[in-house]
Design brief:
alpha+beta, globular, PmbA/TldD fold
Length: 470
């Protein structure tokens, strides 16, 4: 594939075209969903094609084709260049690629347990057993779902800087979801295990134990009291810390948001963002995690990216363009990702987390005194431009006089991006990096792109945060 792409890119007239990259993409996907004892959805998909991006007179042109034939690739290249020329007449700020680095490498997927070695029936049994354990747990569980997903892909990337990279990637997930009901009270819970290393972690997951715990949580929420509302002190367990740092801070540190002025972190490098001792990391190099990858979709090797060091903002998540155009925080660090060949790349997170602190859980409760302990994320969203965020939790407890008391349900937390970090009063010593293996959604000119990510951290305590019950 490299030879075919090279033969096409060598036709580019560099006196006219500033930059071109080509990304050949191939993937296979399988999803098995079992609901209430029956197969609800079984789908498989196979994608293949090439994305071509051209920069002409400061404007981007993008075209893609579901083919690997050289004549069609040449035609698609000409389309991308033509689109860039047309767009250059209307742009207000010229894009630049001033990075002068080429990368070569080949990352071959070597799974611990190859999904090809498991039959469809064995994969179906994983989803079925997950669902059945939930369904049989208690008659008050009125809906139960088990889901198995796998995706294996290869990106072959070349550009006019000389980059030639082949990068394999796989991601696998097994999840369970349950709905419990008692009278008018309905509660939903979920849990999952995910990895990029192969199927070993899914096979090792103790389904009966984990789904029994999940079922207990669903039933327990039926008798929990509604969450209080208002400004109060909070303790967040690691999955909620992961969602918070991803939504409220990670998106605001992505280079495209910085460049376009849609981030509260623009021009903030070197400024204090959090209390001393708070360190925020995005690290796609960690082995086995859902948000890990060897090279990004521009062919840049990934690296451990420090966003906050001891409370101070020190860097952004950059692709080739933002690394070229930002004055500060402009390290090229492999953040350019695309879902498939139908989309342009853009800066994205991998594994985003707050580093460990030194306080025990009991010390955090004591520091809070009175408030709420929120657990098990439902997800959230953020507006990076003004820093406003919201996320919700499945469950939690009241904190009274430094101790956990009544269970609560259906809570939410909202505020401004920096508020939680600046109001933090303690960071726990119980770091879980993959506390929230999730899917991040983000859009650019080529549409909405879901991307596998991981979020985590230790338990943290913060004061005077807006909590909303429902």
């Amino acid at each position: 594939m490299i030879d075919e792409l090279r033969s096409v890119i060598e036709t580019v007239d560099r006196s006219v075209v500033e930059f071109v990259d080509m990304r050949a993409f191939e993937s296979t996907e399988l999803m098995i969903t079992v609901r209430k004892g029956k197969a609800e959805d079984i789908s498989s998909d196979k994608l293949g094609g090439v994305a071509i991006r051209a920069l002409v007179n400061g404007a981007w042109g993008f075209a893609s084709v579901a083919s690997f034939e050289v004549p069609k690739l040449v035609e698609t290249l000409h389309t991308a260049i033509k689109m860039a020329r047309g767009a250059s007449q209307h742009i207000t700020r010229k894009a630049e690629i001033t990075v002068d680095r080429a990368f070569e490498g080949k990352n071959i997927f070597r799974p611990d347990v190859n999904p090809k070695d498991l039959s469809f029936e064995e994969k179906y049994e994983l989803a079925s057993k997950t669902e059945k354990t939930l369904r049989d747990h208690d008659h008050r569980i009125i809906n139960s779902v088990g889901r198995y997903t796998e995706k294996i892909q290869r990106e072959t990337i070349i550009n006019t800087l000389g980059t030639e990279v082949v990068n394999d990637y796989g991601v696998f997930r097994l999840s369970g979801m349950a709905t419990a009901r008692s009278g008018d009270v309905i509660q939903n819970v979920s849990d999952s295990v995910a990895t990029n290393a192969g199927l070993q972690r899914l096979l090792d997951w103790e389904i009966e134990h984990e789904m029994t715990r999940l079922g207990d949580r669903a039933i327990g929420l039926l008798d929990a009291v509604p969450s209080p509302s208002g400004r109060m002190n909070v303790v967040l367990e690691p999955s909620l810390v992961g969602v918070y740092i991803h939504e409220a801070f990670g998106h605001a540190s992505e280079g495209d948001a910085i460049l376009s002025g849609r981030s509260v972190l623009r021009n903030k490098i070197g400024e204090k963002m959090a209390i001393d001792g708070v360190n925020v990391i995005d690290d796609p190099t960690l082995p086995g995690l859902r948000g890990s990858f060897k090279f990004d979709s521009e062919g840049t090797p990934t690296s451990r990216r420090q966003i906050i060091r001891d409370g101070v903002l020190v860097g952004y998540l950059n692709d080739l363009q933002s690394a070229s155009m930002l004055d500060k925080g402009n390290a090229l660090n492999g953040a350019g990702r695309a879902t498939d060949f139908r989309h342009m790349t853009m800066p994205r997170m991998g594994n985003t987390y707050i580093e460990n602190g030194d306080m025990s859980f009991e010390e955090l409760l004591e520091a809070v005194g009175n408030g709420v302990y929120l657990t098990h994320s439902y997800g959230g969203y953020v507006n990076p431009a003004n820093g406003q965020f919201y996320f919700s939790s499945q469950s939690g407890y009241l904190i009274e006089n430094g101790e956990l008391t009544k269970p609560i349900r259906n809570s939410g937390m909202s505020g401004m991006t920096l508020e939680v970090l600046q109001n933090t009063i303690g960071v726990g010593n119980d770091l879980i990096i993959d506390a929230f293996p999730g899917v991040c959604g983000k859009a650019n000119l080529t549409g909405f792109q879901p991307m596998p990510v991981t979020g985590g951290g230790p338990t943290i305590a913060a004061k005077d945060i807006v909590v909303g019950g429902k």
